[in-house]
UniProtKB/TrEMBL annotation:
<feature type="domain" description="Sugar phosphate transporter">
    <location>
        <begin position="94"/>
        <end position="382"/>
    </location>
</feature>
<dbReference type="GO" id="GO:0046943">
    <property type="term" value="F:carboxylic acid transmembrane transporter activity"/>
</dbReference>
<dbReference type="GO" id="GO:0031969">
    <property type="term" value="C:chloroplast membrane"/>
</dbReference>
<dbReference type="InterPro" id="IPR004696">
    <property type="entry name" value="Tpt_PEP_transl"/>
</dbReference>
<dbReference type="Pfam" id="PF03151">
    <property type="entry name" value="TPT"/>
</dbReference>
<feature type="transmembrane region" description="Helical">
    <location>
        <begin position="236"/>
        <end position="255"/>
    </location>
</feature>
<dbReference type="GO" id="GO:0015605">
    <property type="term" value="F:organophosphate ester transmembrane transporter activity"/>
</dbReference>
<keyword id="KW-0934">Plastid</keyword>
<feature type="transmembrane region" description="Helical">
    <location>
        <begin position="124"/>
        <end position="144"/>
    </location>
</feature>
<keyword id="KW-0809">Transit peptide</keyword>
<keyword id="KW-0812">Transmembrane</keyword>
<keyword id="KW-1133">Transmembrane helix</keyword>
<feature type="transmembrane region" description="Helical">
    <location>
        <begin position="95"/>
        <end position="112"/>
    </location>
</feature>
<protein>
    <recommendedName>
        <fullName>Sugar phosphate transporter domain-containing protein</fullName>
    </recommendedName>
</protein>
<keyword id="KW-0813">Transport</keyword>
<keyword id="KW-0472">Membrane</keyword>
<feature type="transmembrane region" description="Helical">
    <location>
        <begin position="345"/>
        <end position="362"/>
    </location>
</feature>
């Protein structure tokens, strides 16, 4: 019986195990999904809207990738083939117009300024009249609402004070130089302004430049030195006036760029305020250096020799001085002080050529070579900066 009971238990256990084992999983077969159309990756090369070789169009495409609105579609729903950057194009055209106008006005000013100084060699009064004319023009424009008057405060005039001091020194020094030497020689010496700009930016502002920029200064300095040594009508006062003017105008440009940051005053109104403050600074020095008695005697002599045209010369040099500086400050809104110095130097090419033609200035070949080397150095400098 025990043996029979033992034989029954295993079979019962096996049956229980068989009943407790889970059923095998049967996979559920679903109908296949339709194949998805492969999506092309987004890239500039896959878009016909932008030309990859043009940097302006690449900038536009990059802006669209960041979520900017795409270019507007045409009436039939198609897209334009090319999308330019109108703001950047307009800005470059605006700067080009400023530079061309600035150079043309400067040529006219230098011609009349030299004519006045040849007949009336009093640079302090001539400088004062130029600032007075600009101040009167802008005050009249503000009074008649031709131009909107700037909203200034005490802090603005404090920040403008060092700019006005540098502007006054540079303006008078350049006029003294023009009274003593030829226009071409003054501007050949003043073409070394990039050298002053780099040195001042390096030692006073702590800016660093690549080695090609420093090497490009060598032909500028060497060319100016060669032109000075071979100048037929060399005058030390005229030479030093041009050098002092270079240094003063570099500081003026740097101070101007700093002073305009965070200010709501436009370049045109900024220079107007600068002219007014410079006039206030210059007036007492002009009376002390020359005085009304000297001016009256010199004026009578000039009018007797030249005639009524002399008065028109004085008016023209005063008005054009303000206009060319006003345009230059409007361009300074858009560019850096170093770029301003380069444009100022390239402007001197037209002034030098025009003055040599109009005043029949004798130029030796070695003197012309020095001027050409200095101008070439300016071009190399601009390329090194880029």
């Amino acid at each position: 019986m025990l043996a029979a009971a033992a034989s029954v238990k295993p079979s019962a256990a096996a049956a229980a195990a068989a009943t407790s084992k889970p059923a095998a999983f049967k996979p559920l077969h679903l109908p296949p999904l339709p194949a998805a159309v492969p999506r092309r990756p987004l890239s500039l090369a896959a878009r016909p809207l932008y030309r990859q070789q043009d940097p302006l169009f690449v900038v536009s495409a990059a802006r669209n990738d960041r979520g900017a609105a795409p270019p507007s579609a045409t009436a039939d729903g198609s897209r334009p083939v090319e999308v330019a950057a109108p703001a950047e194009t307009a800005r470059r055209a605006k700067i080009g117009v400023y530079f061309a106008t600035w150079w043309a006005l400067n040529v006219i000013f230098n011609i009349y300024n030299k004519k006045v100084l040849n007949a009336f060699p009093y640079p302090w009064l001539t400088s004062t009249l130029a600032l007075a004319a600009g101040s009167a023009i802008m005050l009249a424009s503000w009074a008649t609402r031709i131009a909107e008057a700037p909203d200034t405060d005490v802090d603005f005039w404090k920040s403008l004070a060092p700019v006005a001091i540098a502007h006054t020194i540079g303006h008078v020094a350049a006029t003294v130089s023009m009274a003593k030497v030829a226009v071409s020689f003054t501007h050949i010496i003043k073409s070394s302004e990039p050298a002053f700009s780099v040195l001042v930016s390096r030692f006073f502002l702590g800016e660093h430049f690549p080695a090609p920029v420093y090497f490009s200064l060598l032909p500028i300095i060497g060319g100016c030195a060669l032109a000075a040594v071979t100048e037929l009508n060399f005058n030390m006062i005229g030479f030093m006036g041009a050098m002092i003017s270079n240094l003063a105008f570099v500081f003026r440009n740097i101070f101007s760029k700093k002073g305009m940051k965070g200010k709501s005053v436009s370049g045109m109104n900024y220079y107007a305020c600068l002219s007014i403050l410079s006039l206030v600074i210059l007036l007492p020095f002009a009376f002390a250096m020359e005085g009304p008695k000297v001016w009256a005697a010199g004026w009578q002599k000039a009018v007797a020799e030249i005639g009524p045209n002399f008065v028109w010369w004085v008016a023209a040099q005063s008005v054009f001085y303000h206009l060319y500086n006003q345009v230059s400050y409007m361009s300074l809104d858009e560019i850096s002080p170093l770029t301003f110095s380069v444009g100022n130097t390239m402007k001197r090419i037209s002034v030098i050529v025009a003055s040599i033609i109009i005043f029949h200035t004798p130029v030796q070949p070695i003197n012309a070579l020095g001027a050409a080397i200095a101008i070439l150095g300016t071009f190399i400098y601009s390329q090194a900066k880029q």
